[in-house]
Amino acid sequence: MLPFLTLARNLGAGSVRVGLVSNFSKGQLFFVGKNLLKNLGTRAISSKSKPTSVCEEEERAILEAEVAKIGVLQERIKTLEKDASGYIHKIEEFKEKLLRSLAENENLRQRHRKDLEAAREYSISGFAKSLLDVSDSLSRALLSVDIENVDKNSIKSLYNGISMTYSSLEKVFEAHGIKRFQSLGKQFNPKEHEAVFEVKDTSKPKGQVCEELLPGYKIHDRVLRAAKVATIKN
């Protein structure tokens, strides 16, 4: 028997399968053909139910909706960019304030450190200045004695004792940064010298210290006591 083209309906997917079988009855062929025509007719009616213009309108509406969404997103992006710009400006302001504050704190720390060092180095200035009078008295006592013409041993012993006391006091001064500075032959400096009187001498430059009446002292780099001097005038 010649093979016949068979058609079987797939109910799950709504499609048609085609195959070759033998010994196919006329009743079965009629039933399959009827179902096939019914399925094709349903698809044709469904495809003609929506005109082309309606499809275009739907596509246009969808496109317009998408464009509207894009516009909303663009506006949102602009708003976010504006907000971000404001935040960046505020961050720069805070950064500048922070750097300024750090610089001020560093300056304050340096100034505080210098004040502490100055307090430590110059804390004995008042006491040391008082001791300078003692040093002056010992120095004058030594200068008043003509050691070459002293015969009595008691006077020599007194002189030696005063000399040792004076030397010890000078060493104590030096240990605490207190030193005597020279003034003779130097130009008058109002920060270091106190002019008591002037001496007229055309052979020397004006303002030169020609005599030291009372020595001057410094504690580290500060003048503890100005030297009392006589200067040249011409």
Structure description:
The chain is an alpha+beta fold. It has two domains: 67 residues; 110 residues, Roll (Nucleotide Exchange Factor Grpe, Chain A, domain 2), CATH 2.30.22. It is 58% helix and 20% strand. The protein has four helices and eight strands. It has a three-stranded antiparallel β-sheet with strand order 3-6-7. A three-stranded mixed β-sheet has the order 4-8-5, with no helix packed on it. Helix 3 runs antiparallel to helix 4. The termini are far apart. 6% of the residues are buried. Pfam families: GrpE. Belongs to the GrpE family. One of its GO terms (biological process) is protein import into mitochondrial matrix.
Q: Which tags fit this structure?
A:
234 residues; alpha+beta; Nucleotide Exchange Factor Grpe, Chain A, domain 2; 2 domains; three-stranded antiparallel beta sheet; three-stranded mixed beta sheet; 8 strands; rod-shaped; disordered N terminus; GrpE_head; protein homodimerization activity; chaperone; coiled coil
